[in-house]
Amino acid sequence: MSLGVETIRNIAETYTLAWNSGDPERVAGCYARDGDIVINRGTPWQGRARIAEMAAGFYADVNNMRVILDDLRIAGDHVAFIWTFTGQHAGTGHSLDVQGWEEWDLGPDGSIAASRGWYDAEDYARQVAGP
């Protein structure tokens, strides 16, 4: 049974607010207890504690991070969460404006069971290095 478009939009808005809170535990709370995220085909971060570690790493690298929900694509309980994040790199101070997306499989309770995230790592590195 599908969660419905409005429910999924609420899940996406809650996820965006969680990222913008600066609280890694709040981000992790959007996931199923054994949920996972893989970024750019990297090593999976599985379980809420590991997902909180992943979020904390982003917060450590990006000052004043803001996530913007650009768009959603919904097919049943499979969702493309299309985003932009902005901020300043903590090490260089250079401005960041990074676009990407996550492909979610949602559980019946609306938690994120699995996420596959994508962004252009070369563009990110270019922005970190600056002009």
UniProtKB/TrEMBL annotation:
InterPro entries found in the cross-reference section: NTF2-like_dom_sf (IPR032710), SnoaL-like (IPR037401), Steroid_delta5-4_isomerase (IPR011944)
One Pfam family named in its UniProt record: SnoaL_2
All copies of domain SnoaL-like, residue ranges: 14-113
Record Gene3D superfamilies: 3.10.450.50
Origin superkingdom: Bacteria
Leader sequence residues: none
Name of the protein in question: SgcJ/EcaC family oxidoreductase
Species, as recorded: Tabrizicola oligotrophica
